[in-house]
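Same chain as my last thread, 184 residues:
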Amino acid sequence: MSDLSILQRIAAGDQAAVGECMDQYGDLIWSLARRYLGMDADAEDAVQEIFIELWTNAHRFNPDAGTEVTFVSTITRRRMIDRLRKKGRAPGLSNLDDTPEAALAEKGDAASESAEIENVEGVLGEMEPKHRQILQLSIYEGYSHSEIAAQLDMPLGTVKTKVRRGLIHIREQLDIDPDADDSG
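reply #2:
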């Protein structure tokens, strides 16, 4: 079993892998929970739920489809967004990994971050209203592409294309290298 990843070992019933999973991914999950939910009991509850979900869905991990850390962070991010939606709050600008702000990488202090956000908002303000609306639903309110398509009565492919083109446009306007390392 030593050739298997932690999640594959959990799926195979290896109890020791559960502790290894907590050791390996605990900091990542806590970091994302605090980033989305702040330092409160809600973040604690979310972390517990995420670990339970990881253990119950470990069999779904496919190392050919992506890395284990990507699988863990994707589940974590999705659960945080679900939790925020249930609470009736939308995730903030810095909470979504696929926002233009995330592409800027987390560099500098609060003043430079604020200036970066203003720059992004300036670029958004110059866009065609319908295109801007789609990006705002995605970036500011955290709606999925399919939710935006349903809400605006548009084909899903159109929404995906507009979001992608919009993010590319923002990166170009702000002179952000799309190949830059976003790991921060």
